[in-house]
Structure formats: structure tokens, C-alpha cells
Specification:
Number of strands: 8
CATH architecture: Alpha-Beta Barrel
CATH superfamily: Aldolase class I
CATH class: Alpha Beta
Structural class: alpha/beta
Strand order of the largest sheet: 1-2-3-4-5-6-7-8
Largest sheet: 8 strands, mixed
Helix content: 25-40%
């Protein structure tokens, strides 16, 4: 069975109120080199068109979308969330898909979102697949905001990893084109790269992330290394439940960040679900310290991880060695009986 069909078969459509946003909260991020409050808004749209066709192996965001969402529904969501602005100077706009997909976010809705948020915040960040971005869309978007950053899910620069682990058919070439357009029109570029896509061993995952970071650096202002977390109804979830996948160790994330400190782009990581079984984790006793250190590094509050250590670091090294010896990306610890 083709990977595209396996990924699609994991999806189970659910019903949601198309007039309600998915979520909103405030977190810390960097704005003009200083730590600032970032307002996060996740609009409920019809979701990513690629997720409807097949989808990425690790992405469960399609689980939260509505089957159909009208322009009026999106306007209602916007009206409901605007009153919650508490002076945050930075706003991140997520749609569980592509902000520049006219079928997901109609042009008039996109213009109003940018206008309203641009009036309230100093910088707006949106997400889209690189091949979705058109010049006319970006020119229009830039007219509503003082500063715009476009985030792209590149995931990896290795075509084999993209096709056979992530289930994506767009890579560095499309990303470079979109990044060049952003910079030409005055927008900045954020690049998302994965740490440990499906079927990669711990060591392969580290090397892929480091290599991808260096390859994407010329086309990025910010590079965010995203450790894969196990989201429901995904191929990664299926592998996880069978003991064939373990989310990356936090030590792996630390090594990736250490080995990409030479990049020109700002390097960061915010492990979703960190410290939990379905997120990047270590032994449990050092997880909080490791996550805090990664967050501090991402906010420019520390330069290295020299003070971070735990006995489980040796276990992590042995884990990576055993996977290579066994010639498998399966979780060796899951094979050990209780």
C-alpha cells in the first residue's frame, strides 16, 4: 500500500462548530531581539488541502478542522477573538493549514484578519506551504501590517526523508523560491524543520536536522527545530502504538541546537508535549531542566548547554547505538519486557 494512502486511512473526520476558534493563548517569543509576549490564535478552517488529499505522517492538526467553513464563519471567529487582545506586540496566526490558500482563507477574510491584527500588533506571523505563496497575495498582505513573517514547514532538505518519512513532495527548491519572494517584498522567513520524522533512527534524525538546518540557513531568518510529537490519528501514532516509534530524546534536540549555533538564522526550538511520553523526553527526572534550558536558548537567554547533564545521557547514547546495531528505527526500550 502506498504511503499516501496509509496516512490518509488514519484520518477520522469529526464535526466542529465552524464559528468557534480552535484555541488562543499567550507565550514568550523574540521580537526585535527582545523577549516579548506573543499572542497565538488558531482559527478553525477547513484545514490543509494536502491533509485532505493525504497529509504529512506526523500532522494531526486535521483532527481539529471543520468540514466546511464559510467566510462568515471565519469573520465571526475573528470578531470573537479580537476582544481578547491584551496588548501583546506579536501575534502568530495559525489555521491548521495554509493562510495563503484562497480556498481555506478567502482573500477578503485574509485582508480583514491582517488589517485588524496589524492595527493591534507590531508583527504578524502566518503559516503556509511554500508552493502556495503568490506575489499578489504577499504584496496585498504587506499593505496591512508593519512587519510580516511567513513560516514554512520545510521539515527536511533530504528528498528521501521528505517523500518516505514525512510524505511531502515539496522541498528546498520551492522553499528557496518562496523565501526569495518574501525577502524581496520585505517579509521575513521562518523555517520549520523536524527532529526525528518517522522511520529515522535517533542518530539519523540528529544528522538530518543538522544538515537540513545548514542547507536551509541561506533561505531563513529564523529556523525552528520541531521535535516530532505523537498526534492522534497519524502514521506516527500508529507506529508509536506498535512500539515502532519513540519521540526524540531531549538530548537529541540539545545536540541539534548545539551543532547549529553557527547558523546566520536565529535558531530555536519549542518542544510540544515535552517531557511526556508522546513528546520529546528523557528519563523523566531531568526533563523539566532540559526543556527549560531549550526554552532559554530559544529566547536568547543562554548560549550553550554546558551545565546540563544527567545519568540518562549515557542511556541516550546507548539507545542510539543499539538502533544502529539492530538496523531498525523501532524503539529498543519497547522491546524489553516489563
Amino acid at each position: 500500500m502506498r504511503l499516501q494512502q496509509i496516512v490518509k486511512d488514519e484520518r477520522v473526520p469529526r464535526s466542529f462548530d465552524p464559528r468557534e476558534i480552535i484555541s488562543t493563548w499567550t507565550e514568550k517569543d523574540l521580537l526585535r531581539g527582545k523577549v516579548a509576549d506573543a499572542w497565538v490564535i488558531i482559527f478553525r478552517t477547513r484545514g490543509c488541502y494536502w491533509a485532505r488529499a493525504s497529509g504529512c505522517s506526523m500532522c494531526g492538526y486535521v483532527n481539529d478542522v471543520a468540514q466546511e467553513v464559510s467566510a462568515a464563519d471565519l469573520m465571526h471567529q475573528l470578531d470573537s477573538v479580537l476582544a481578547r487582545h491584551a496588548g501583546q506586540p506579536l501575534v502568530k496566526v495559525y489555521t491548521s493549514g495554509n493562510f495563503f490558500d484562497d480556498h481555506e482563507v478567502p482573500p477578503d477574510v485574509r485582508a480583514r484578519i491582517l488589517r485588524e491584527l496589524g492595527d493591534r500588533c507590531d508583527k504578524v506571523i502566518v503559516e503556509t506551504l511554500s508552493h502556495m505563496l503568490r506575489r499578489d497575495q504577499l504584496e496585498n498582505a504587506m499593505s496591512f501590517v508593519d512587519a510580516l513573517e511567513v513560516a514554512f514547514g520545510l521539515e527536511s532538505t533530504n528528498e528521501r526523508v521528505l517523500r518516505h518519512s514525512v510524505n511531502k513532495v515539496w522541498g528546498l527548491a520551492e522553499h528557496a523560491r518562496a523565501a526569495a519572494l518574501c525577502r524581496e517584498l520585505g517579509a521575513t522567513v521562518k523555517t520549520y524543520l523536524l527532529v526525528k520524522p518517522a522511520f529515522l533512527t535517533e542518530r539519523e534524525a540528529i544528522e538530518d536536522a543538522v544538515a537540513s538546518g545548514h542547507a536551509a540557513d541561506p533561505h531563513s531568518d529564523t529556523i525552528s527545530f520541531n521535535p516530532v510529537n505523537v498526534q492522534g490519528r497519524t502514521l506516527v501514532d500508529r507506529l508509536f502504538r506498535r512500539g515502532e516509534y519513540r519521540p526524540p530524546w531531549l538530548w537529541s534536540v540539545v545536540e541539534v541546537l548545539e551543532r547549529t549555533r553557527d547558523l546566520s538564522a536565529q535558531v530555536k526550538s519549542h518542544p510540544t508535549g515535552g517531557g511526556k511520553a508522546r513528546g520529546a523526553h528523557n528519563c523523566g527526572s531531568c526533563d523539566r531542566r532540559a526543556i527549560d534550558a531549550i526554552e532559554e536558548f530559544s529566547l536568547g537567554l543562554r548560549r550553550d548547554f554546558g551545565d546540563l547533564d544527567c545519568e540518562c545521557r549515557d542511556v541516550w547514547r546507548a539507545y542510539a547505538d543499539v538502533q544502529e546495531f539492530m538496523l531498525t528505527s523501532a524503539d529498543p526500550l519497547a522491546l524489553i519486557p516489563d
